[in-house]
Amino acid sequence: MAVIIKVMFLVLVIFALDFCTCNSLQVGTTVNGQLAYVDTVKLSSIPLKVRTKNVFFNGNHTIKGIMVLDMAKTKAKASLTSGGVGSTFANIKMKSERGGEINFQIQIFV
């Protein structure tokens, strides 16, 4: 019985680590926010190359929250380079790992 519990615990830990390896970005809050912008950014992988993509958003309302979801669960990273929560604009930079792809969904709430 103790072996089964240890195996189940190990499976749970592996699942949690796999789930947490994605590098999604969440800034601000999405609660009571209206979805103002949605975009999916996909760039295929090129061997030995790092892929980057910048997304620029400029709206009329103040941004309450930004979510950038890593749909491929890779080690690609997203960062907010300017603007963001409290501004009416946002610049988001996405960068893949070497030889990796980019597959992010961007959601901006106002």
Polypeptide structure, described:
The chain is α+β, with helices and mostly antiparallel strands and 110 residues long. The chain is 17% helix and 44% strand. It has one helix and seven strands; from the N terminus they run αβββββββ. β5 (77-83) and β6 (89-95) form a beta hairpin. The radius of gyration is 17 Å and the shape is flat. Residues 1-24 form the signal peptide.
Question: Structural class of the helix and strand makeup?
Answer: alpha+beta
Side by side, the strands of the main sheet go: 1-4-7-2
Q: Report low-confidence residues grouped into runs of 5 or more.
A: none
Main sheet overview? 4 strands, antiparallel
Helix content: 10-25%
> β content, as a range?
35-45%
Q: What are the secondary-structure elements, in order, as H or E?
A: HEEEEEEE
Q: Treating each run of at least 4 consecutive H or I residues as one helix, how many helices?
A: 1
Global Rg = 17 Å
Can you give the mean pLDDT? Answer: 85
Number of DSSP-assigned strands: 7
Shape: flat
Distance between the termini: 52 Å
Protein name: Jg26938 protein
Signal peptide: 1-24
Pfam family, one: MBF2
Organism: Pararge aegeria aegeria
Helix-strand blueprint:
Layout: H1 2-20, E1 25-28, E2 35-43, E3 52-58, E4 65-70, E5 77-83, E6 89-95, E7 102-109
Antiparallel strand pairs: 1-4, 2-7, 3-6, 4-7, 5-6
Protein name: Jg26938 protein
Pfam families: MBF2 (PF15868)
Keywords: Signal
Compact summary:
This protein is about 15% helix and about 45% strand.
Task: Offer a few descriptive terms.
three-stranded antiparallel sheet, alpha+beta, 7 strands, 1 helix, four-stranded antiparallel sheet, 110 residues, MBF2
